[in-house]
Task: inverse folding
């Protein structure tokens, strides 16, 4: 049984023009010990899924799901107290933008120390506990590769460079020793060496501590080698999900294929200086979503049936939603 | 730190200089004789006039005149009132503290009531209690302050006869001005019936304080509420929620301070309104403050008094505004980015 299991998650935003389905029947699972990649162009709703999981969405939006469970417990039906406990100890989140996710009026050290669960610190007197908190904080920032802990722990968020901010967000997530880490675009804008460092850290944590990771990114290259499974998102709909190696070898959904084709390193047959195949157009805005399959207007394989939303079909543990999938003609 | 202080001091001095130039030019702009406008002394004969003109450098260039005017200002030699013939410095020395006293009490009322109410309704936004607080603060805010004051006088002084109609303290008590604050002066004095005098002064204070304080409180509630709601919608609050912090932790560690920071600069803007309101309400309650005094000066065409009175009031406003702004700059770490001071 998967640890995090989300089925038909739908998020509706109410605006003056009517209701918009920002997420439409999204399916996502994360099993214990796996690294799952959640990919999609920017604007496809990845961050919204992350916020939905941690319950940080504005209450005026309506969130429904057939199932949204954490270790068998329904996340949506929990009391806020239970939900908070889950977020405090079991699930940790690295948000996309460190600069806005940190309180501008508190130092990094204060914010890191308040994330340390009180069970981790013993001591009769508060100064003993404060000292322990400090020690934990320092060792955690070292772990994510921040060297000058003295300088950075007493700095305010606006005083640090953004890659330190991102590493620091990771440190804040790891300090509570969670079982699931959700990382929303943690390597965005990092230079390659730092990026490799972070990816290595994630792989190591996954292997040594069997930390499950939901790795959200629009950068296929970064995650293709490290993740076990992948879910592809397009305009708020899950289009395909399955084992990384299956999808890489034989994508069933036209969008996944286009996504893979546009990453040169996945293609061995590419002659030098040839054009990269891409699909025309760009991701639709929420105000102008096409009906049926949201890829429809851009899809090279689209036919009349595509004005109906395709149902999820499944072959073993590989699922896709498309009326005319690739590689299936022979069947 | 030193840089900030230096920057604000320069701003302060320059603004005061501009004000001094304006008040000096008023002596020329007002109708009548420049010498009389500037000094408040009406010379008895030509010989005395010549002597005075020489003394005030009126026979020399404007620049020299202005610098002489500045030295006089610093020396505390502000001229004489046309009407009473008393030194203006002494008159303002009594009137200005009276105004500051009234404004201070109203500000205290606004802070003590307004900020907690604002936090409460901001944290409970769009609930019934929030609607009640918000509606009543908008209603109060929309009252013209003089109308509210008249209403209070009508109800509490004339109908119910609960509060005195005018003045600062009953004429029975002779309070020696030390600090200029009536309550403080009563406490400092050695009268026999201190507590009676104190009660009397309080009853005189209550209505004008309510009249001015109500409007300030209402705007304080609105500013605070908005700021709290804004702070609650920041991404770092969502991030803190997702770290599993409790509601109290989030309020005390993240909302409280971040909501307070934008309030301070808005308070600096409020100070101007507060002083203006105080000056208006003073005239209705015959409170012997600077507003009342200026109105009398206008009626009497007391040009020297107007000139110095305007300078005193604007100096007060500028001082308060710049001080609050500087304080705000010192405590807010993220404002390091904004290098330039602003009023
Ligand atoms: N607070 C919001 N109000 C309105 N629309 C939003 C809000 N946040 C995100 N969206 C919309 O939801 C869509 C998905 O956004 P997001 O989840 O941030 O995409 P991604 O993380 O995949 O780049 C975007 O079209 C965005 O415009
Ligand atoms: S359902 Fe139709 S439009 Fe959508 S991806 Fe498949 S073929 Fe293309
Ligand atoms: Mg995003």
Result:
């Amino acid at each position: 049984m998967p640890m995090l299991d989300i089925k038909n998650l739908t998020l509706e935003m109410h605006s003056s023009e009517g209701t918009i389905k920002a997420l439409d029947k999204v399916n996502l699972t994360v099993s214990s010990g796996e690294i799952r990649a959640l990919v999609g162009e920017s604007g496809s709703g990845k961050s919204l899924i992350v916020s939905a999981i941690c319950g940080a969405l504005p209450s005026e939006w309506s969130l429904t799901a057939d199932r949204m469970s954490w270790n068998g417990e329904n996340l949506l039906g929990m009391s806020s107290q239970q939900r908070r406990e889950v977020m405090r100890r079991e699930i940790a989140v690295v948000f996309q933008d460190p600069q806005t996710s940190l309180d501008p009026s508190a130092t990094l050290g204060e914010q890191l120390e308040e994330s340390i669960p009180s069970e981790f610190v013993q001591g009769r007197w508060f100064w003993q506990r404060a000292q322990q908190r400090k020690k934990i904080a320092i060792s955690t920032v070292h772990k994510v590769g921040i060297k000058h802990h003295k300088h950075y722990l007493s700095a305010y968020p606006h005083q640090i460079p953004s890659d330190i901010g991102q590493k620091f967000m990771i440190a804040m997530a790891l300090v509570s020793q969670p079982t699931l880490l959700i990382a929303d675009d943690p390597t965005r804008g990092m230079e390659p060496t730092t990026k490799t460092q972070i990816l290595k850290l994630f792989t190591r944590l996954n292997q040594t501590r069997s930390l499950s990771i939901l790795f959200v990114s629009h950068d296929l290259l970064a995650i293709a080698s490290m993740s076990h499974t992948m879910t592809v998102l397009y305009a708020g709909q899950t289009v395909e999900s399955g084992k990384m190696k299956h999808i890489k070898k034989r994508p069933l959904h036209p969008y996944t294929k286009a996504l893979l084709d546009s990453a040169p390193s996945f293609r061995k047959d590419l002659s030098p200086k040839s054009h990269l195949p891409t699909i025309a157009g760009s991701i639709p805005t929420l105000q102008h979503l096409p009906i049926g399959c949201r890829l429809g207007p851009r899809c090279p394989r689209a036919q009349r049936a595509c004005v109906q939303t395709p149902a999820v079909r499944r072959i073993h543990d590989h699922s896709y939603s498309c009326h005319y999938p690739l590689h299936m003609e022979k069947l | 730190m030193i840089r900030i202080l230096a920057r604000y001091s320069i701003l302060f001095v320059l603004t005061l200089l501009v004000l001094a130039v304006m008040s000096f030019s008023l002596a020329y702009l007002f109708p009548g004789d420049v010498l009389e406008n500037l000094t408040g002394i009406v010379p008895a004969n030509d010989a005395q006039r010549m002597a005075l003109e020489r003394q005030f450098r009126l026979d020399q260039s404007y620049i020299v005149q202005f610098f002489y005017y500045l030295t006089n200002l610093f020396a505390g030699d502000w001229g004489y009132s046309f009407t009473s013939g008393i030194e203006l410095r002494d008159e303002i020395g009594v009137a200005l503290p009276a105004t500051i006293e009234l404004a201070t009490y109203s500000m205290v009322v606004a802070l003590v009531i307004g900020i907690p109410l604002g936090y409460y309704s901001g944290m409970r936004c769009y609930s019934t209690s929030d609607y009640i607080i918000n509606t009543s603060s908008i209603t109060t805010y929309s009252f013209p302050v003089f109308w509210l004051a008249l209403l209070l006088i009508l109800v509490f002084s004339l109908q119910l006869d609960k509060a005195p109609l005018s003045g600062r303290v009953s004429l029975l008590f002779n309070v020696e001005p030390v600090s200029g604050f009536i309550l403080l002066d009563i406490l400092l004095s050695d009268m026999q019936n201190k507590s009676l005098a104190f009660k009397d002064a309080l009853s005189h204070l209550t209505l004008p304080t309510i009249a001015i304080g109500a409007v300030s409180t209402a705007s304080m509630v609105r500013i605070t509420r908005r700021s709290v709601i804004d702070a609650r919608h920041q991404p770092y609050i969502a991030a803190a929620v997702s770290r599993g912090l409790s509601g109290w932790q989030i309020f005390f560690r993240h909302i409280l301070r971040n909501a307070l920071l934008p309030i301070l600069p808005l308070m600096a803007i409020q100070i101007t309104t507060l002083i203006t309101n105080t000056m208006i309400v003073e005239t209705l309650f015959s409170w012997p403050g600077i507003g009342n005094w200026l109105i009398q000066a206008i009626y009497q065409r007391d040009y020297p008094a107007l000139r110095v009175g305007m300078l005193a009031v604007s100096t007060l406003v500028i001082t308060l505004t710049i001080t609050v702004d500087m304080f705000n700059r010192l405590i807010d770490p993220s404002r390091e980015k904004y290098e330039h001071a602003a009023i």
